[in-house]
Design goal:
With 174 residues, the protein is of the alpha+beta class. The chain folds into 2 domains: 5-128, Ribosomal protein L10, N-terminal RNA-binding domain (Alpha-Beta Plaits, 2-Layer Sandwich); 129-173, no CATH class. The protein is 59% helix and 16% strand. It is built from 6 helices and 5 strands; from the N terminus they run αβαβαβαββαα. The longest helix has 43 residues, at 131-173. The radius of gyration is 27 Å and the shape is elongated.
């Protein structure tokens, strides 16, 4: 089913709006994927905050024109699925994880603002921890000294009371 001019303009506008906030775009060929597999992939993408859509390449070329992702337009050939994310790692991670279990999804490349990634670049990006993972690690690192300090404060009165009891017992024996 083909789109009329207004529908195409709406799609270009929607993709352009996603690209304004985006930190990464990953493209993959989806030829041969069944509907159930695509449904699982879309669910994973939604859970990770990734905008995932199958689009005509000409519409995407128009949407990326004048953005930091314009160099990506050289990679837009064939039936492609586009993953756009505000987290630089999320889109690459979702598609790479899915491609590990489904050989029909073939990652073709991607882009970070003002730079193009090849397949190996996307895989390297997918191996990095996500923003949420990094924040969790940072919070854990920041909480460790506080937890240790609280533990120490709880132990001081106990040790003090034990010390007083020992002194009292020594005086009672004398």
């Amino acid at each position: 089913m083909s789109l009329n001019r207004q529908e195409k303009a709406a799609v270009i506008e929607e993709v352009s709006a996603e690209l304004v906030e985006a930190k990464s775009v990953v493209v993959a060929e989806y030829r041969g994927l069944d509907v159930a597999s695509v449904t699982v992939l879309r669910k994973n993408a939604r859970q990770s905050g990734v905008y995932l859509r199958v689009l005509k390449n000409t519409l995407v070329r128009r949407a990326v024109a004048g953005t930091a992702f314009e160099p990506l337009s050289e990679q837009l050939t064939g039936p492609l699925m586009y993953a756009i994310s505000n987290d630089p790692v999320a889109a690459a991670k979702v598609l790479s994880d899915f491609a590990k279990t489904n050989d029909k999804l073939v990652i073709k490349g991607g882009s970070l603002p003002n730079s193009v990634l090849d397949v190996e670049g996307v895989k390297a990006l997918a191996s990095l921890p996500s923003r949420e993972e990094l924040l969790a690690k940072l919070l854990g690192t920041m909480q460790a000294p506080i937890t240790q300090f609280a533990r120490t404060l709880n132990e001081v009165p106990t040790k003090f009371v034990r010390g007083l009891a020992a002194v009292r017992d020594q005086k009672a024996e004398a």
